[in-house]
TrEMBL record:
Pathway noted in the entry: Cell wall biogenesis; peptidoglycan biosynthesis
Record-linked CDD domains: YkuD_like (cd16913)
InterPro entries per the UniProt record, alphabetical: LD-transpeptidase, LD_TPept_cat_dom, Transpep_catalytic_dom
Organism superkingdom: Bacteria
Protein name: L,D-transpeptidase
Organism this protein belongs to: Marinobacterium rhizophilum
Record keywords: Cell shape, Cell wall biogenesis/degradation, Glycosyltransferase, Hydrolase, Peptidoglycan synthesis, Transferase
Residues covered by the L,D-TPase catalytic domain: 4-160
């Protein structure tokens, strides 16, 4: 019986898809520019045990643009980016995380879900392996699409420094 787990390493800037102790796939990611932290408004990536609470974007095209977890009808392009400077692009798919540890990453000002912490796609021009996000875990669009298809809602996620 398979026991899937997503393990995110902030120091390595990697997301590993594991089945038990076996690494099935390893992806480069980009976590928060502000480092690790749980407080609302910190712009940090929260640590600890989480689960994927919701999967958003099934069936949408690669580079689909989301705002407020809803497809805007736009498909990301360099021209769209040029006309929207400074926009934090959430593309292709969203895996919305929910913390599992009250007082650490769940409830109050430390709640990962209320902070809208996602694993999501980002423009291919954005570097991976470099912490640049506003708190989320950014991935290449083809990688987040593959991961989205492989993991169910409720899959465990461990975020560690």
């Amino acid at each position: 019986m398979s026991k899937l787990l997503l393990r995110i390493s902030i120091s390595r800037q990697r997301l590993d898809l594991l089945d038990g102790a076996s690494v099935l796939q390893s992806y480069p990611v980009s976590t928060a520019r502000n480092g690790a932290g749980e407080r609302e408004g910190s712009g940090c990536t929260p640590r600890g045990r989480h689960v994927v609470r919701a999967k958003i974007g099934a069936g949408l095209p690669l580079n689909a643009v989301f705002r407020g977890r809803r497809f805007t009808g736009e498909i990301y392009s360099p021209q769209l980016a040029q006309s929207n400077p400074g926009r934090d692009w959430i593309l292709t798919r969203i895996l919305w995380l929910c913390g599992c540890e009250p007082g650490v990453n769940r409830l109050g000002a430390l709640d990962s879900m209320r902070r809208f912490i996602y694993i999501h796609g980002t423009p291919d021009t954005e570097p991976m392996g470099v912490p640049l996000s506003h708190g989320c875990i950014r991935m290449r669009n083809v990688d987040v699409l593959e991961l989205f298809e492989r993991v169910p809602v409720g899959v465990a996620v461990s975020i560690e420094e």
